[in-house]
Amino acid sequence: MADDILDRLQATIAERKGADAGASYTASLFHKGRARIAQKLGEEATETIIAAMGDNPHAIVPEAADLIYHLLVLLADAGLSLGDVRMELAKREGLGGLDEKAARTPAGLPLSFRP
Ligand SMILES: N=c1c2ncn([C@@H]3O[C@H](COP(=O)(O)OP(=O)(O)OP(=O)(O)O)[C@@H](O)[C@H]3O)c2ncn1[C@@H]1O[C@H](COP(=O)(O)O)[C@@H](O)[C@H]1O
Fold this sequence. Notes:
Strand content: under 5%
Shape: globular
Distance between the termini: 37 Å
CATH class: Mainly Alpha
CATH topology: Helix Hairpins
CATH architecture: Orthogonal Bundle
Number of strands: 0
Number of domains: 1
Bound molecules: phosphoribosyl ATP
CATH superfamily: MazG-like
Number of helices: 6
Helix content: 55-70%
Structural class: mainly alpha
């Protein structure tokens, strides 16, 4: 079993592909499709923002967990993984956000999207 909770969660989510939608919330999301998963991710992002505007920073934590769970479901639905995101972050490592912004293409694409 993986040491990291995100890796274990990702593996559990992958196992739910094709599972009975009545027995698993994750499977029900896969059955509803990409647009619904993306909509749920947006709702969870909004709930995270609302928590962030409140007085109790600890209220952000469960919303952030919902957000990350739904992001992992979206990645899995698209045939992607945390590994892909880790690689993207590794490519950016050491490149400051202000430098990256200054080097953007006229179309505004991040450096990593250049052919
Ligand atoms: N981490 C999560 C997790 N985080 C949030 N959620 C669910 O995400 C939903 C989001 O809450 P909402 O109130 O917005 O959802 P809802 O109104 O019930 O859903 P909709 O009808 O709007 O789609 C809730 O049903 C939560 O239980 C999660 N469901 C599952 N997991 C993990 O996934 C594993 C597999 O779960 P199942 O696929 O259900 O077996 C679990 O063991 C957990 O480790």
